[in-house]
Amino acid sequence: MDDLLTTGLKRFGLVAGLSLSLVIAGCSSDDGKKEEDNADKPETTASVSEAVNYTITGIEPGAGVFKAAENAVDEYELEGWNVQASSSGAMATALGEAVKNEEPIIVTGWTPHWKFAKYDLKYLEDPKGVFGDVETINTMTRKGFKDDNPNAYKLLEQFEWTTDDMEAVMAEIEEGTSPAEAATNWVEANEEKVATWTEGVEEGTGEIELVYVEWDSEISSTNVVGKVLEDLGYTVTLTPLDNAIMWQAIAGGEADAMVAAWLPATHGDLYEQFKDDIDNVGVNLTGAKIGLVVPTYVDIDSIEDLEAK
Predict the structure, then answer these.
(1) Model's pTM, two decimal places?
(2) Mutual orientation of helices 179-189 and 191-198 as an angle, nearest 10°?
């Protein structure tokens, strides 16, 4: 009997020992799994805010999207955040470096733009509507331009294209082609569409100055329109200006036209300021959009996901 009891206790001790070992191993395994899961877990919204140093990489401070970004900081109560002024080119460079290193970044963005074709990006949701709805890009001329240049005015009035058209020109420029050459290539490859712009338009003479803000989208559209006007016989000057000065130049009659007016949000305040002194010829592109943009690997979906400092 004693031998049986001793044997039973030994067996029980062995089983208990094994059970304890399995429990310990199980806990260690679970802990290891948790560590792995935490390592694989995407950045939290708080860490994204910290990782970008509570900074939105912007463009020129006079741009509507820049002002809207500043408004977003206030509306979403993002205390301690900064909208960093730079330029369209500097913003694109910073975005490219961040994507290359898979680092988080938040930029002021708009479409059409070649960056959406080159990188996997997304707009942050804007439930408060700070950045507005879909926009149009409009053509504006100085007062009296229609009387002075009726054929050129008719061309501008009939000029209309799509976001795909514009992005094709932008992409070629981004790859290293000069804006003038990219515009020429597009015009030659899209004769049918260009023919709808020039329908009923007679050849002309004289000088025309087109002004634009140095955004990739406006560089593309202005060069394309300039090329078509040159083909009609005009001597065309393309002049890059800051946003406000571009509008002032048209309103003051110092320049003839622009195809770079984003409405109703981006240039809305400037349009209200100068609308009585300019001629709104009409829409040349629909489906434009502005907002805050991040690479898709950044684990936030809305401006509301951002944290105050």
Answers:
(1) 0.78
(2) 90
